[in-house]
Design goal:
globular, mainly beta, about 130 residues, about 0% helix
Length: about 130
Amino acid sequence: QLQLVESGGGLVQPGGSLRLSCQGSGFTFVYYAIGWFRQAPGKEREAVSCINIRGSSTRYADSVKDRFTISRDNARNTVYLQMNSLKPEDTATYYCAAELSPPNADAKCDSNAMPYWGKGTLVTVSS
């Protein structure tokens, strides 16, 4: 059974950092592109960052560029999202999602194309 489990969320002050992890199990992780998405209360889900299967291509939302970094460790079946200089507007539940992907495809952040989702981890940025 394919499973994605997010971890690493919590309460952090503005300007602080967190690292989120998305661990996959029950499938061949290296064949799947991974994306991070977030949803704040009362707002629509938005793409945050995505990475292709080799980690050679990444995409970021404009709102997180230069602050967030996505990476993957296929040996550990894990994708990370390093979040620095956090702002109150980053407060949301963060979800990772997976999509079976061709080996040479670039990263894309189309949530409608991602059939597999984790249950999310809450990030709260507040003083």
